[in-house]
Design a protein that fits this description.
Among the domains are: about 140 residues; about 35 residues, no CATH class. The protein has 28 helices and no strands. By secondary structure, it is mainly alpha-helical. Helix 2 crosses helix 6, helix 11 packs across helix 14 and helix 17 packs antiparallel against helix 18.
């Protein structure tokens, strides 16, 4: 027998509070807490369902005035819905809320709201035909044709593979790979979290332990994984993004992981635009720890903004990021890493700063100097970042004097970069930043083309340094392609340098990811 409604009402406040704390289960702590309480919560929902079953639907809101708030918070928590039993109980509760013969606008509004929640669950998860039949009639929908299409697809895939085996000879070492429709895969990932985690880890394995990958190849891997399209659903995006976060921290900012995050984000935004010109979910749903106004600026692709406004947009990004980073309480759980993690998703902006500083003939603005220093070493304190900004300003001053010079020498550029025979005393992240300034100078300065190979040969004294320069050139060409940027001479030089550098490392194994971003040391997620 169901518990009386007075007793149930006394439990409301506790579970409403819990659901508010859990939010959309975006952190490991909330997910663990849900696991600890899920059986108690399911039992509470069962009692609610029994109470609703015995009541007239038109009087439900009188007896349980905040039932809608509780069920809505439950329906939008993907971690709760990941449990099959939770789905069934919630559907049962929602079915009993539908008023069969609504008498006024309030009851019509309640029915519409309830159908909306049921539609949300239907679009995210699939159930047995018997279960679907319990409420499709009350929604006014026809029976789903999902299962016949899925079965047909599986059979066709099997027939295709069997034919191929008959032609080529049966190979027991080959996988019997079954091709499922995208909708089926997304539903599987939403309902069974381990399968989503496995798909993401499989992508990591292909990128990290395979042969060296250029960004075009990484883009193919990312799109083939279906993860960007599936990530249009915020629950999937948040889980994949969390895995990126831990991969980034675990490798101290390995360039392979950074590149994958940026390519994934680019593909994800393309998928969002393809699916619907207007966002179905707010940006806050995808980036919960970010300022909405900052996320709105970053998600714009630079090619959609006039080139003359890029400098201004970067200054705006810097102002917003700086305010967030410098206003944070020292030792806070999020810290500057969260702001940096958001920023590096959008490589089109993150990699443009050094280029814009070099192309400007004016005094380097402090906003862009700060943004450049922050992007290379996010966890520096304000004093260390100020020192990096000063170092960069000095180097930029030298390079700007040389920019229009008709004749350059490798010695001139070494001196401009502040290198000496006794070694460079600057922190590793600062040295890397200045190397990238120098590489940008070689690509853009008219006189830089004549000494480019000599300078790069002096820089590429180790395998690690050679690979860093290869990554830089590939990333730059990839970005220019996406910007549709016209720079014939610079493109030609970058494309000529790449094969020369690749020849130096082509016989050496890539190996696992190494920690090459010292600026992340000590960062917390």
């Amino acid at each position: 027998m169901a518990q009386d409604s007075g007793g149930l009402s006394s439990d409301y406040q506790f579970w409403i509070w819990k659901l508010s704390v859990w939010g959309q289960a975006s952190t490991l702590e909330t997910q663990q807490d849900i696991c600890r309480h899920i059986h108690q919560f399911q039992e509470f929902l069962r009692q609610i369902c029994e109470a609703l079953r015995e009541m007239d639907s038109s009087t439900v809101t009188e007896r349980f005035p905040i039932i809608g708030q509780l069920l809505a918070k439950t329906c939008w928590n993907p971690f709760i819905l990941a449990y099959d039993e939770s789905q069934k109980i919630i559907i049962c509760c929602l079915r009993h809320l539908i008023i069969k013969e609504p008498q006024n606008s309030g009851e019509l509004k309640l029915n519409s709201w309830t159908r909306g929640l049921l539609s949300h669950i239907l679009s995210a998860f699939r159930f047995d035909v018997r279960e679907v039949g319990l409420f499709t009639q009350s929604l006014g929908y026809t029976s789903a044709d999902y299962y016949p299409h899925l079965l047909k697809n599986v059979v066709l895939s099997l027939v295709s593979e069997l034919r191929e085996n008959c032609v080529n000879g049966f190979n027991t070492q080959r996988r019997k790979k079954i091709s499922l429709p995208k909708s089926a895969i997304v539903c599987l990932w939403l309902r069974h979290l381990p399968s989503l985690e496995k798909a993401t880890l499989h992508l990591f394995e292909k990128l990290i332990f395979g042969e060296r990958n250029f960004l075009r190849r990484i883009e193919c891997f990312v799109k083939d994984s279906l993860l960007p399209e599936a990530a249009c659903h915020p629950a999937i995006f948040r889980i994949v993004d969390e895995m990126f976060r831990y991969a980034l921290l675990g490798t101290s900012g390995a360039p392979e992981v950074l590149a994958t995050i940026q390519v994934f984000t680019l593909c994800f935004i393309e998928a969002l635009k393809k699916e619907n010109n207007q966002l179905k979910f707010t940006l806050k749903t995808y980036f919960p720890y970010a300022s909405p106004s900052l996320a709105m600026v970053l998600i714009q692709h630079p090619k959609d903004i006039p080139q003359g406004l890029w400098h201004q947009t970067l200054k705006r990004i810097s102002e917003m990021l700086r305010k967030v980073v410098e206003d944070q309480t020292p030792g806070s759980s999020r810290g500057p890493f969260e702001s940096w993690f958001l920023f590096i998703h959008f490589g089109g902006w993150a990699e443009m700063v050094a280029e814009q500083l070099l192309m400007s003939e004016a005094e380097p603005p402090e906003d862009l100097l700060w943004l450049l220093a922050f992007s290379y070493s996010p966890c520096d304190g304000s004093q260390q970042r100020a020192q990096t900004m000063e170092e960069v300003k000095v180097v930029l001053g030298y390079l700007m004097k040389l920019f229009r010079s008709p004749t350059l020498s490798a010695r001139d550029l070494q001196a401009a970069a502040g290198e000496s025979q006794g070694g460079d005393p600057r922190p590793p992240a600062c040295r890397r930043l200045i190397r990238h300034l120098l590489l940008n100078f070689l690509l853009w300065a008219p006189g830089g083309h004549t000494v480019a190979w000599e300078v790069i040969s002096l820089m590429a004294q180790t395998d690690e340094m050679t690979q860093e320069i290869i990554n830089f050139l590939d990333q730059t060409l990839y970005r220019w392609d996406h910007l549709c940027l016209e720079a014939p001479a610079s493109r030609k030089l970058a494309r000529e340098l790449l094969p020369e550098l690749l020849a130096r490392v082509k016989h050496r194994p890539a190996g696992p990811v190494a920690a090459t971003q010292p600026g992340l040391t000590g960062a917390t997620g």
